[in-house]
Each structure stands twice: as C-alpha cells, then as structure tokens.
Design brief:
9 helices, two-stranded antiparallel sheet, mainly alpha, about 5% strand
Length: about 210
C-alpha cells in the first residue's frame, strides 16, 4: 500500500524550512526550490501544500505565532500560584523572545513584521497574532484587578487613582515586549536588562 502522507506535518516541516532560510538570508532569499530542498521534499510537494509563495509565508508566520502563544500558555500553566505581576512578566518575556535559544526566531519574526509593512496579507496575520497575545495579557490584568483592586497612577485633574484599563495596559505591555526584541537583537540592551524591564513594569502596574 502507498505510504500515507501527513499533510499537516509536511506543512509544518516546510514552515520550519522557511524560517531557517529567512534567518540565514532574509525573506527575499526564500525560494520555493530552496524551501523544498531544506524540507527534504519535492517542489511538487511544496506546491501541493501551498499554491503561492505568499500563502507559504503566511502559514510560516502563523506557525511562529502559534509557537510563541503555546510557550506563553505553558509558562502560565507551570506556575499557577505566581502573582499576577510575575505571571505578566513571564508571559511578556516569552513574547519578547529574549532567550538565546529563541534568538533566531526573533530575527525571523522581525523579518516578517518588516515585510508585513508592505504586504496586506502578512499584516493581517501579524495583527491576528498580536490580538491573541494582547487578549492573554488583558485577561491576566483583569484577574489581578479583581483580586487586588489595583489602580493606575493618580489622575492629574483630581489627584485620585484612576482604575486600570486592562486592554489599554495590555496594548502597552505588548508594544513594550515587541520593542525590546529589537533592542536586544541590535545590542542596545542585554537580554537580562530587557527582562528586568519586562518584570519591573507589571510589578509597578499591579502592586502586591
């Protein structure tokens, strides 16, 4: 009998090949032929999985987003008793891709984000990834507010503390994590310095 082909696994292998090549050459250096060779499949197999190069890139970008999201969820599950501020710091660190083993993934993610600035299709995928991560941050902040009654800094007009807006704060934290990825990659900050920022910000946001 002919061997069954696991199409989902093949698509993941191709996505991994895209990421490896993008890390080595940038997205402009990714060709269907080279992807097929790196994934150890035929050109026909790549074309059966993806009708166009753009479709392949969109899938690869989503593949990276899923991996990051899975690590965020796993990190939170591993330490369910941690404070909300600590949980946020750990989740943001995963998103920022600060660890050495995630450095290549960080380079590829930024390459995709840069390309998304001129590709509407890739931009939609990046936006979807950000939306999922932002919602995770917002839920953590909402839970912390419910538990502690945390409030933001004093309002200029009254001097009284203003209630936190979880979605606004989630947007800010996600933007902070995303920006620190670039700062570490270009050597402006060390991973340790960036991680300190990501843990200090939630601790100030959600005092224990």
């Amino acid at each position: 009998m002919p061997r069954q082909v696991d199409h989902a696994e093949r698509r993941r292998r191709i996505a991994d090949a895209v990421c490896e090549l993008a890390d080595e050459r940038g997205l402009e250096g990714v060709t269907l032929r080279d992807v097929a060779a790196r994934a150890e499949v035929s050109m026909g197999a790549v074309q059966r999985c993806f009708r166009t190069k753009e479709e392949m890139l969109v899938f690869a970008l989503g593949h990276i987003g899923e991996r990051i999201g899975a690590r965020v969820r796993a990190r939170l599950v591993r330490s369910p008793a941690q404070s909300a501020g600590t949980a946020l710091g750990h989740a943001a660190t995963e998103v920022a891709l600060l660890r050495e083993e995630h450095r290549a993934e960080a380079r590829v993610w930024l390459a995709f984000v840069a390309q998304a600035a001129v590709s509407e299709v890739l931009a939609r995928t990046v936006q979807a990834n950000y939306a999922v991560l932002q919602e995770s941050f917002a839920r953590l902040i909402e839970e912390a507010c419910a538990d502690t009654g945390a409030a933001a800094g004093a309002r200029a007009d009254t001097g009284r503390a203003a209630p936190l807006d979880p979605r606004r704060e989630a947007r800010a934290l996600l933007a902070l994590a995303d920006g620190l990825t670039t700062h570490v990659l270009i050597g402006h900050l060390t991973p340790r310095e960036a991680e300190d920022v990501l843990h200090t910000h939630p601790a100030r946001l959600l005092p224990q």
